[in-house]
Design a protein that fits this description.
The chain is an all-beta fold and about 120 residues long. It contains no helices and 11 strands. It has strands spanning about 5, 10-15, 20-25, 30-40, 45-50, 55-60, 65-70, 75-80, 90-100, 105, 110-115.
Length: about 120
């Protein structure tokens, strides 16, 4: 069974930084796209960033210039470096990955990021 395990969330002051990690294990297939979404209380899940297996990245408009996504294919791990954090970045951050030719998708359990003003 494929598992996505996130780490790195926490409480930080506005203007600070955090780095999230997500390790994917248990897949017999190559990991294709990896990335992050987030969900704030009473809001819909929002796209944050995705990165292809070749390293091509896309970002949501609200995080462009502040967040950087990267991955280590040898470790099946994706990272999200979050700088210049704002209170509106407060949310549960979910790791996403898909694998295989039919692109089966999975989600992590979520990690809380709280930015205080």
């Amino acid at each position: 069974q494929v598992q996505l395990v996130e780490s790195g969330g926490g409480l930080v002051q506005a203007g600070g930084s955090l780095r999230l990690s997500c390790a994917v294990s248990g897949s017999s297939y190559s990991i294709n796209t990896m990335g992050w979404y987030r969900q704030a209380p009473e809001k819909q899940r929002e796209f944050v960033a995705l990165i292809s297996s070749a390293g091509s990245a896309n970002y949501g408009d609200s995080v462009k210039g502040r967040f950087t996504i990267s991955r280590d294919n040898a470790k099946n791990t994706v990272y999200l470096q979050m700088n210049s954090l704002k209170p509106e970045d407060t949310a549960v951050y979910y790791c996403y990955a898909d694998w295989g030719r039919v692109r089966v998708a999975g989600w992590g359990q979520g990690t809380q990021v709280t930015v205080s003003s």
